[in-house]
Each structure stands twice: as C-alpha cells, then as structure tokens.
Write a structure and sequence with these properties.
Layout lengths: L8 E6 L2 E6 L4 H9 L3 H26 L5 E4 L6 H11 L4 E4 L25 H8 L9 H8 L6 H46 L3 H34 E2 L6 H9 L5 E8 L4 E8 L2 H12 L4 E10 L4 E2 L2 E2 L1 E9 L3
Parallel strand pairs: 3-4, 5-6
Antiparallel strand pairs: 1-2, 6-7, 7-11, 8-11, 9-10
C-alpha cells in the first residue's frame, strides 16, 4: 500500500504480475495529512481511504480466490504510525505493517548510520529498481523504468545527452517552422484556386436550368421517336397483299404494354388483323386486348389462342398469344 501526499495506490503482485488500484484523496485530505491536528478530519479521511482499500482487496479475492491478510505499507509521512493504528481499527481482519526493504539486506558498516530510520519504507522504490525486481511499469520494466533512473549518474554522459537534446529541440523547431511555411503556402494556393473556381461557376444555375429544359425536350422527342420506330418495325413484319393504313398501325403500336412483344402481324386485306406475340403474364395479354378495344379504328379485339412455348427470356417463361382484331368498316 503506497500511502502519502504524492502517491496512493494498492499494488498486489500475483504470479509476478502487478495489479494496481489507485486510491483517490481530495485536496482537503492532503492538508489533513500534512497537519494531522484535527482528529475528526483524520478519522473521516481514514474511513474513506480504507473503504477504497477494502474494495480493491475484495475485487482481487473475488476474481482470483486468494485471501489477503496483510498489507505492507510504504509511506513518507512522519506520523504514519498513528494512521496505521486507525487503519487496523477500520479493517480488523487485515494487518498493516510498514515495509522495510533493508531488513534482509546486508548494509556496509560505513552506511549503517545513513539508513537508521524508524520508517525506511520509502527506500523501497529505489532499492527495487536497483535490483530490477520491483515491476510497476509492466512491459517497460527493462525498457523504461531502469533506463530512466540512473543510480550512479555519469556527468560527462549527462552533459552529452543535454547537448544532444538541445540540438534535437533546435532541429525539431526548424522542421516545425518549415512545415508551417509549407502549410501557409498550400493554404494560399488553395484559397486562390477556390476563388478561381468560384469565378468559373458564375452562371452555373442558368446552365443547370437550361440542361433540365433540354432534358425534358429530349424525353418528349425520344418518346415520339419510340412510337415511330415501333410502327416501322410492325410494318416490316406485316404479310399482306396490300398496305395497311398508317393510322391503324399507329393505334396498334401505341397499345403495346411494356412486357409484350410482337412476332408478326398478318392483315387479310379487308377487315381483320391477326397479331402474334409473346408476353410475360396473362395480365399483360389482357391489358393489350383492353388497349386495342379502346382504339377508334378497331371494332373488336379478342384472344384467339395462347400457348407456353419453350423459348425463355432469362429465367421467366414467355407466354405466346394470337389476337384477332376486327377493324371498323370505313
């Protein structure tokens, strides 16, 4: 348990993997830790603190089914012992003891006086890093943590590093300046291009309007052309000993639905036209007959026969038909 003014967290080492849970304290709590002159505030702080510690322990015990009975406390507070007593009262089933990282280390005689403190827990980080055993940095154990903390700094190397860093900063600023200039130039070119394109777009709405009008005219002309083309195709398929009136052909052509096509038209020379063709469905044939009966020059149109030929259009079978049209007597 790291407990102090700067860092507050619970770290549980499970199978050499650290499980770290931060403990949050308020700014007012830091003042309480510094002064420690108000018993009520101290008790309230301990209650909030131990609640978070208890939750972290319970989460670990629930997930890994391992019991935690003691916590080793690392703290740089002078009155840490008084807080540990309050911790023990709030969590009666958990022990709180100051961690002594030097307890099992043989200290040279000339250094013993330097480490004679009642609270030596705050030596834990530096000793752990020195032995590369304390891993609170995860994957970056050897890459970052030990690399960035030099227990025996070399002055010449540090000076060389500072010079290299200063040069790097200067080079970085130069690169940033060049990039900024390039961006300014590109922005200016883009702004100029936008203005040029805006000038070219003058009258765009008028062009769009003219295009729509021409499109409508084209559609009308295409529709009329389609009717004429269909009439010409029908006239080529007629077998007769004399020509058929163009008005009759035009009315027959205008009666054809979308999913119907003619294969032949036979005119007997007087008052009967026989139309052979194919359609997708019965409804299309009935619609063709209704359209023919609605024409002025056709007295009566009726279905003479219908068949299911083997010819197919895609995957849909086309139905063959023969329609007899009796013309009005002139």
């Amino acid at each position: 348990l790291e407990f102090g003014l700067d860092e507050n967290y619970v770290m549980i080492l499970y199978e050499n993997n650290p499980i770290i849970t931060d403990i949050f304290i308020r700014s007012a709590d830091r003042n309480t830790l510094k002064l420690s002159d108000n018993q009520e505030e101290m008790d309230a702080l301990v209650r909030r603190y131990t609640t978070q510690v208890k939750q972290a322990i319970q989460d670990f015990e629930t997930k890994y089914e391992k019991r935690i009975r003691n916590l080793k406390v690392v703290s740089n507070l002078e009155n840490v012992d008084s807080y540990l007593e309050r911790f023990r009262k709030n969590l009666v089933n958990t022990g709180f003891n100051l961690f002594d990282p030097i307890d099992e280390i043989k200290v040279p005689a000339q250094l013993e006086e330097n480490v004679k403190y009642n609270n030596r827990s705050y030596f834990a980080s530096v000793i752990g890093l020195a032995f590369r055993k304390l891993d609170v940095f995860g994957y970056f154990k050897f890459v970052t943590a030990v690399k960035n903390i030099n227990l025996l700094p070399n002055r010449d190397n540090m000076i060389a590093q500072k010079k290299a860093k200063a040069f790097s900063n200067f080079a970085f600023k130069g690169v940033v300046g060049i990039v900024a200039i390039i961006y300014v130039v590109l922005f200016g070119l883009a702004f100029w291009q936008i203005n040029t394109l805006n000038q070219k777009l003058d009258g765009y709405q008028q062009v769009v309007t003219d295009h729509e009008l021409k499109t409508l005219e084209k559609s009308k002309v295409a529709k009329e052309l389609g009717k004429l083309t269909k009439s010409l195709k029908l006239s080529r398929s007629i077998v007769s000993n004399k020509s058929v009136s163009f008005r009759v052909l035009a009315q027959v052509a205008s009666s054809v639905p979308k999913r119907v096509r003619f294969t032949s038209i036979d005119y007997n020379g007087s008052d009967l036209i026989v139309i052979e063709g194919e359609a997708y469905s019965d409804q299309d044939i009935l619609k063709l007959i209704d359209n023919l009966n609605g024409k002025k020059l056709i007295s009566n149109a009726s279905l003479a026969s219908m068949s299911l030929p083997s010819q197919q259009a895609g995957q849909i079978t086309m139905k063959g038909f023969v329609i007899a049209c009796v013309l009005e007597k002139s």
